[in-house]
Amino acid sequence: MSNYYSKISGWGMYVPERVLTNHDLAQMVDTSDEWIVTRTGIRERRIAAEGQATVDMSLRATQQALERAGLQADDLDLIILATSTPDYLCPPASSVLQDRLGASRAGAMTLVAGCTGFLYGLITAAQFVQTGAYRHVLVVGGETLSYAMDWTDRNTCVLFGDGAGAVIVSRSDQPGGLQTMMLGSDGSGWDALLLPGIGSITPLTPEVLENKGHKLKMNGRAVFKFATRVMVEAVTQVVTEAGLTMNDIDLLIPHQANERIIDLAIRRLGFDREKVMVNLDRYGNTSAASVPLALCEALDQGRLRPGDRVVMVAFGAGLTYAACLWEWQPEEVSEEPILVTNWPVPESLRETAQQVRTAAWRMQVQARAKASDAAMAIMLPLYTFRKGVKKRLGK
Fold first, then answer.
1. Nearest to 141 by CA among 284, 289, 279, 253
2. CA separation for the pair 294, 289 (Å, rounded)
């Protein structure tokens, strides 16, 4: 059992000033605002300035987080920087960030888990503080994806953007923080999202550059199919393990990759769309920065209050996925006495009732998922037929 609780004591975000709209992209590649919005929900994204890299943005986000937490860089015990686009392959971006922060006491590590990286880092940080090993851990998700874009490939360049989000995970005596979590990976899909030409298996050569091997490649259909499945499974697992249903969740923060993926997942979960945090229309897919950017904006908008339960879920290259259920702590411990009823319900009866409630909800989720899959199976041949007819007619 944990000795302490984990608490997000500070948060911060940074996105570059340059805004790249869908209309701007239409001047660069064969696409349009309507084509992008209807397929992804994205309207614009932020692009790093020349010379601006992942550590630059991570530093700005971290400074905000430290200020909100009322901490100094020397208070940090550990820095976890989640990124797939570090400033250098060597040294680790986390060490560069540590130096620029002046966090001389902190250990530092860079975590590479694709778009899921921030949640891997957040869950890792919670373990350190809940066991009492550390008091304050910085977790950052930062990406400069624009450098890896092929700006002639509309299947990828319309999706991604740059940015960074940071949180301070602190030790707390107050109940709350991380409740349940899961980390997952399906390595059989490792090549669905790939930057093939940078790494020890493929030395960077003129031929690699000419063939754009240093640019991101994606199998969109494989990622979509994977994402819609694991998001539902991951959310269901962490909510069920907490002995809850989606009715008990106050806010869902999904990875901001594609609005279609989000909409399909929440329909299968039977969750209220109004309680889902979505900001991908303004930032696009910022990979490891996606969830912390959405979390920071949700907090700044007052969408999370003390005692609220928030589920965060992500998927990404690897193929990795993760989810966690976090209970937002109250600012102060209540001094009001706890009222005990004269006729208490036996604990065993309460547990049985909760188990029945959770099982019924899980069956509903599975039924909705099967119905959705069946509908897609019926529509796919029709869609393929119509597409073939249009092609033959030259439309």
1. 289
2. 9
Q: pLDDT by residue (tens digit) across 188-213?
A: 888 777 677 777 777 777 777 777 76
Maximum CA extent, the chain: 80
146/157 Cα distance (integer angstroms): 8
Q: Is the CB of residue 131 less than 8 Å from the CB of residue 3? A: yes
Check: pTM over 0.90? Answer yes or no: no
Contact between residue 84 and residue 317 where contact means Cβ atoms under 8 Å apart? yes
Alpha-carbon gap, residue 40 to 202, rounded angstroms: 32
- What fold does the segment set 5-327 form as a domain? Peroxisomal Thiolase; Chain A, domain 1 (3.40.47)
Distance, CA of 384 to CA of 111 (rounded, Å): 40
Rg (CA), the chain: 22
160 and 145 Cβ atoms separated by less than 8 Å: yes
Instruction: Please report, for residues 71, 128, 201, the alpha-carbon distance to residue 9 in angstroms, rounded to integers and kept in the order given.
Output: 9, 15, 41
Distance of alpha carbon 214 from alpha carbon 207, whole angstroms: 11
Domain boundaries, the chain: 5-327
Q: pLDDT tens across 362-379, in order?
A: 565 556 556 555 555 555
Going by the DSSP 8-state scheme, the letter that residue 174 receives in this structure is: S
Alpha-carbon distance values, 58 to 67, 95, 100, 266 (Å): 14, 12, 10, 30
Is 255 marked active-site?
Answer: yes
254 bridge partner residues: 313
Q: 97 phi and psi, to 5 degrees?
A: -65, -45
Q: Which of 255, 258, 296, 324 is catalytic?
A: 255
| Residue 115 bears catalytic tag | yes
Is the peptide bond preceding residue 91 cis, with omega within 30 degrees of 0? yes
In angstroms, the Cα distances linking 363 to 149, 181, 237, 269, 388 are: 42, 21, 13, 10, 38
- Residues 324-335: tens digit of each pLDDT: 999 998 654 333
Catalytic residue, chosen from 136, 157, 258, 285, is 285
> Choosing from 115, 157, 296, 324, which is the catalytic residue?
115
